[in-house]
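Exercise 7. Predict the structure of SsuA/THI5-like domain-containing protein from Alkalihalophilus marmarensis DSM 21297.
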Amino acid sequence: MKLKKWIWLPLLISLILISISCSFGNGSNEKVRVAEVTRSIFYAPLYAAMAQGYFEEEGIDLELTTAWGGDKTMTALLSDGADIALVGAETSIYVYAQNASDPVINFAGLTQTDGTFLVAREPTDEFHWDDLKGSTFLGQRKGGMPQMVGEHVLRQHGIDPRKDLNLLQHIDFGNIPSAFASGTGDYVQLFEPQATLFENEGLGHIVASFGEESGEVPYTVFMTKESTLTNNNEMIERFTRALYKGQQWVSEQPPEIIAATIVTFFEDTPVDVVTQVVERYKEQGSYATDPFLSSGAWDNLQTIMDASGELPLYVEYEELVNAQIAESIVE
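Solution. The predicted structure, encoded as tokens:
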């Protein structure tokens, strides 16, 4: 009988291993729901990781939905409509300030600079920030990262956004490009690909990058509820590992290869425009090359929020950032 047991033992182990392998196969991967705040070439490493099959390699069937707004993204996460949210890190502070029983924890960074550009209606041979004084500036939503970073950069250049220009913030995020195209504003703060499209079509002219001016900040991050980190930490680790593969791939590939890989996520945008945008973001270091969120970037975020009058309270780095997962994966 002992001999028979030893004969069956290798077979039993093989069957267990096959079972584990199948549980992470394409047919039975763990479903993970991710809500992104918007669809943007700014998030190229995520789409690259999806297109390259890195999430499947980690046993994840990723379901990506676009919420079109920070408030809607957080509602999806907090109401269990999503397992993970991709949104600005400032939203985790807003939730924490409301004494949430299950706070939202930032565990992986995707972008590390602002992703907007200053677009002027009229061409200029040499742009100076003082040119904005007295102009009508079509800004972003009050309390969001684009607007807070925009105001931070303006103040760095000696411009009071409330006194030195006519700041417009009443237009919904999705309607800002069309408002500028129809004649509203002398300057506008735009994400890509709208900025490049406007420039290519002669509707505007990119004169400055808010990302280059603002410094490192956890602009767009992946976050989840504290309870999810407690109950399904292993899934979050696998998700972060897949993301890291995508980040490394994007850092190593030329813009045209990246664009060809992710263009299916942008059906209405020509591949040459996607290439232009990717190149612009890569050149200014917007894409994080690993998921680690630094304490310095976290402090910079709160400095920017405080200067804009939007910081409800200061929150320690360790309170809302889980750096251990990213550290272990990068190492």
